[in-house]
Write a structure and sequence with these properties.
D-Maltodextrin-Binding Protein, domain 2, globular, alpha/beta
Length: 336
């Protein structure tokens, strides 16, 4: 099992500009800390490997938390099984606020409908705390696909003409990129083979190396390699064109009006976390995510920083569950 940990120590300098709300949040969080014996180390479990989008989010927010509250933050990468390894690790953690999980929203919104059996119950084992960031997905092709393919229509034609080459990768079975591929190719009536990777970076290596023809990933991971010419970005998944790739048409523009998706990431505590610890952690996270330096850093990765209250995140999860359950049934998508 791939493991990677990053230690983020507090830096001894002035708080970043715009952190006035953090100055209010920090004492509240310290009071909650004093009620436990968990010490001064916060562990952030991360559902992706080093270099992935979840890893970037976990590290950036971890740095901000360390800065604002003088704590040592350890990012503990637990990739694999589309985030379920990280979730199962959170299940066994003490509900004292010393362990957070940063993961894609799919662990709570999609997996209950996608998997016949889950090793966790999102309603019991996960306590939503706050959103962290949102981003658009991109559909890319690499050297395995001829350079004449520059849009989705041409890709689908090529796939029909080359059934033995029509494999598409994703950062894991059941992830939002996997579901976008499944819905797109099923809607188009194209036969394809799914190749699941343990996270975005290895999937990207597979695309660039020609092992897979198509890849769907968060836009931020694709943009640097598009700039170098190593891949072609054929479409993005938002309702409007992405501000980070404004010259790339959306799937909607290319004849697929139902395929509007945005990947989002959020923080979770163990399901048995006391209300006071939940409130303090939420307040600290919202202050960290609001820092201008973090917002700017997220923008460099084609991500929009976004926080929420626990109640708002619970409602978002419930709303998306109501959307995804019938879609997954209709598409006959199932994961084991």
């Amino acid at each position: 099992m791939l493991r990677h940990s990053i230690l983020l120590r507090p830096r001894r300098r002035a708080l970043l500009a715009g952190a006035a709300s953090a100055l209010l949040a920090a004492p509240f969080w310290r009071r909650a800390q004093a009620q436990t014996s968990r010490g001064d180390v916060l562990r952030i479990l991360c559902s992706g490997p080093a270099g992935s989008v979840p890893d970037t989010v976990a590290r950036r927010v971890g740095e901000a938390l360390a800065e604002l509250d003088a704590r040592t933050v350890v990012v503990d990468n637990r990739p694999g099984a589309a985030g379920q390894i990280a979730v199962n690790t959170l299940k066994t953690a003490a509900p004292d606020g010393s362990t957070l999980l940063l993961a894609q929203g799919a662990i709570a919104t999609i997996y209950p409908s996608l998997y016949a059996r889950l090793a966790y119950d999102p309603a019991i084992d996960l306590q939503p705390v706050s959103l962290a960031g949102e981003m658009t997905l991109g559909i890319a092709v690499g050297p395995a696909v001829p350079g004449s393919v520059t849009n989705i229509r041409q890709l689908l034609v090529w796939m029909r003409q080359n059934p033995g080459l029509t494999n598409a990768g994703s950062p894991g079975t059941g992830t939002l990129p996997h579901l976008l591929e499944a819905m797109l190719f099923q809607e188009a009536g194209v036969a394809w083979e799914h190749v699941a990777y343990p996270g975005g970076p290895p999937a990207l290596a597979g695309l660039l190396g020609g092992q897979i023809a198509v890849l769907v990933l968060p836009e931020g991971l694709l943009r640097p390699h598009r700039a170098s010419g190593r891949l072609r970005l054929l479409a993005t998944s938002g309702a409007q064109r992405s501000a980070f790739s404004p010259d790339v048409p959306t799937l909607v523009e290319q004849g697929h009006p139902k395929l509007v998706l945005r990947e989002w990431f959020a923080f979770f505590l163990p399901g048995r976390t006391p209300p006071a610890t939940l409130a303090a952690t939420s307040q600290a996270l919202r202050a960290a995510i609001a820092q201008p330096a973090l917002v700017a850093a997220f923008g460099e990765s084609a991500m929009v920083a976004a926080s929420s209250s626990p109640a708002e995140l619970v409602e978002r999860i419930a709303a998306e569950q109501r959307v995804w359950a019938p879609l997954i049934r209709a598409a006959a998508i199932r994961a084991e």
